[in-house]
Amino acid sequence: MSEKSDNNWISFSDIMTVLMVVFLFIAISYILEVQKKQAERDEIFEEFKATKEELYNELDSVFKADFEKWEVKLDKDLSIKFTNPDVLFASGKKDIKPKFDTILQSFLPRYFGVLLQEKYKDKISEIRIEGHTDAVPAPEYDADPYIGNIILSQLRSTEVLKYFRNMNYYSTLSKLDEKKLQFWLTANGLSYGRTLDDNKELTILTGNPANNKFSRRVEFRIITTSEKLVDRVLKEMEK
Known about the structure:
single chain; 239 residues; alpha+beta; CATH 3.30.1330.60; five-stranded mixed sheet; 5 strands; 12% strand
């Protein structure tokens, strides 16, 4: 009887040992998977940071003197803000002024000359041309002031994109570069949802009154491929 009990105990002990080993392997596998995902996330964030810094530094190097002259601001988020009221659009209008025409003739070939470099071909997912308006209603486009300005700002960004496509520089691009730009480039109308204050900062962040002249502007914004991946990782972390 005693021998039978011992055998039963040994069998139970063996089962517990096997289960412990199984759970240990599961735990180790889980830890390794977590570490792998964390390493991948770290790599994505590092690539995101490095790409933005490289693009920022190169654009700053190419345009620093001109941006000061043109009253243009390059931000760390890779947005370039054309806010000089004497250069851009009259209130309620979409037509490019002669001075802005002159600036675009100098800016656009060099800007896209930077972005179309081979080293950035897999680093960029989108280049946005953003139109922004002041808060003055635009009833000729719509009775709703916000929608009216959505239409006006869209027309402004589209006008800049149209201008670019009609440039001599654009006609010299290779078919591959043209296809790349057609994939990257978008024209976006943002109405007066992102007005600027006297310091050219977003009023929604500062709480300051809007400066209508500065708010009436065009921005060029680069979205990197790693930026898309960062957004995806952040969403996964929220789950």
